């Protein structure tokens, strides 16, 4: 009886490790977003970015692969080429994400005297414009493209982080920055509806990260009031409340679109809960150095190993001995190990709603 149990257990583990592509479900993968998923549309740093997997900097804000890379591998497709690369083949997908991309257009920030922090004009609608312009070269006529997209997976986000940081880094209050959230969520909803109009029928829409758990924010907005921090995590409560509010509005948008387009699968990826659980239970995932300390940063710089004057790849910074023991790579982006765990939570459960 015991042998049968262990044989069944081995079989189930084996199944969980099989590539998701065994179903042959998708012919292409397309991605939209910001630095969490840019695979080379903006390249602003050198090694040690890319050191773990690629051995060189590729424009990915990590030591290795991103969530979108693991999603591509999991469904049996190649890593996505940036849409700005010349002479690339986009027959199996393309990446339209840009480092520092906001959800909203620059005009929104200009009206609020927040232009100083903007430098990549790649809002969600501009990324979708690029996608729409590229489609005919991949699949031909509008109807042919609808047929093609009916077998494609689209990942829309994460979006929103740069919209809020543009205000926060300009010393605007969280209360003021929170007023951006309805416009941000609405823009994401409108973007998804545009993609559905082009033929998309299967989309993943990630939540906003719990930004209060990242060393950059923990360092910049450090306070002496213990009530500002979660007792179990050490994360900043007010900044996580902003992320939570964004995600609440985003889910409302998705619920509305599901009712309007019942034949379309719109999957909510609960990135917030996943990363928050890293902070609650770091050892559960093998993060021996915890969830709040930066791997590539300034050694000895406070509790979080982060210093704005010695950021990753700058003079004064260094890399931890083992990135697999860290959630945070450079203070705001995650390690390849964290990305792998997150992608598994989407492909095999339980952080995708509805699941595959």
From TrEMBL:
Stretch forming the signal peptide: 1-23
Alphabetically ordered keywords of this record: Glycoprotein, Hydrolase, Signal
Coiled coil: none
UniProt-recorded Gene Ontology molecular function terms: hydrolase activity, acting on ester bonds
Protein family per UniProt: Belongs to the 'GDSL' lipolytic enzyme family.
Name of the protein in its database record: GDSL esterase/lipase
């Amino acid at each position: 009886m015991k042998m049968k149990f262990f044989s069944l257990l081995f079989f189930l583990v084996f199944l969980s490790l099989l590539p998701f592509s065994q179903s042959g479900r998708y012919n292409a993968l397309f991605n939209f977003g910001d630095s969490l998923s840019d695979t080379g549309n903006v390249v602003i740093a050198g090694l040690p970015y890319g050191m773990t997997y690629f051995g060189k900097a590729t424009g990915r804000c990590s030591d290795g692969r991103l969530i979108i890379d693991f999603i591509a591998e999991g469904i049996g497709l190649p890593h996505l080429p940036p849409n700005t690369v010349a002479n690339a083949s986009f027959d199996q997908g393309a990446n339209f994400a840009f480092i520092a991309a906001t959800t909203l257009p620059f005009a929104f920030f200009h009206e609020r005297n927040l232009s100083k922090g903007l430098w990549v004009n790649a809002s969600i609608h501009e990324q979708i414009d690029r996608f729409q312009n590229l489609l005919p070269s991949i699949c031909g006529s509008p109807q042919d493209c609808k047929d093609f997209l009916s077998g494609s997976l689209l990942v829309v986000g994460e979006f929103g982080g740069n919209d809020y940081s543009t205000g926060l880094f300009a010393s605007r209050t969280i209360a003021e920055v929170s007023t951006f959230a309805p416009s941000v969520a609405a823009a994401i909803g409108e973007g998804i509806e545009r993609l559905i109009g082009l033929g998309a029928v299967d989309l993943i829409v990630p939540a906003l990260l719990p930004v209060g758990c990242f060393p950059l924010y923990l360092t910049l907005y450090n306070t002496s009031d213990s009530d500002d921090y979660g007792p179990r995590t050490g994360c900043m409560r007010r900044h996580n409340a902003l992320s939570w509010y964004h995600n609440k509005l985003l889910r409302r948008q998705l619920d509305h679109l599901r009712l309007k387009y019942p034949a379309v699968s719109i999957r909510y990826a609960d990135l917030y809960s996943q990363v928050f659980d890293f902070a609650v239970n770091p050892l559960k995932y093998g993060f021996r150095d915890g969830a709040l300390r930066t791997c590539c940063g300034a050694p000895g710089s406070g509790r979080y190993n982060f210093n704005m004057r010695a950021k990753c790849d700058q003079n004064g910074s260094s890399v931890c001995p083992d990135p697999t023991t860290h959630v945070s790579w450079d203070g705001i982006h995650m390690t390849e190990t964290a990305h792998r765990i997150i992608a598994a939570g989407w492909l095999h459960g339980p952080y995708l709603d509805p699941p595959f």
